[in-house]
Each structure stands twice: as structure tokens, then as C-alpha cells.
Design brief:
Layout: H1 3-30, H2 37-62
Length: 68
């Protein structure tokens, strides 16, 4: 795995971390109030995509295939 590959994966994981923090803050601020599904999905979707991309990239790197 090249340094560029490692940076790409780290960026995806960091992005997911930021989104997780934002979701946590949203849920905590709601403090028992209703939160729209759209609000939650808007935060979760990029996190899901970023984590899937990072996992796919790690899998490709393990198999010795170039990341793209």
C-alpha cells in the first residue's frame, strides 16, 4: 500500500469520524425532542459511504490491487 493509498483511506475514516460526531451532537441537542428522519439520514449517508469506500480500499490493498 502506497502512502497515497494510506492517505486516501485515512481521509475516508476521518470523514466518517466527523460525521459521527455531528450525528452525536444532533441527537444530544434534541434531548428527547423529535428529529426528522431526513436530518439523521443526511448525516449517516456520507458516513456509510465513506466507511464502505475505506473498507473496499483496504480489501483491494490486501489483495495487491491498485486503489482508485
Amino acid at each position: 500500500m502506497t502512502p497515497a493509498d494510506q492517505r486516501l483511506i485515512a481521509d475516508q475514516v476521518q470523514r466518517a469520524s466527523f460525521i459521527t460526531d455531528a450525528l452525536y451532537d444532533l441527537l444530544r441537542a434534541a434531548n428527547g425532542e423529535r428529529i426528522s428522519t431526513t436530518s439523521v439520514l443526511t448525516l449517516i449517508e456520507p458516513m456509510r459511504d465513506g466507511l464502505h469506500n475505506a473498507c473496499d480500499q483496504l480489501d483491494r490493498a490486501r489483495r495487491g490491487k491498485p486503489l482508485s
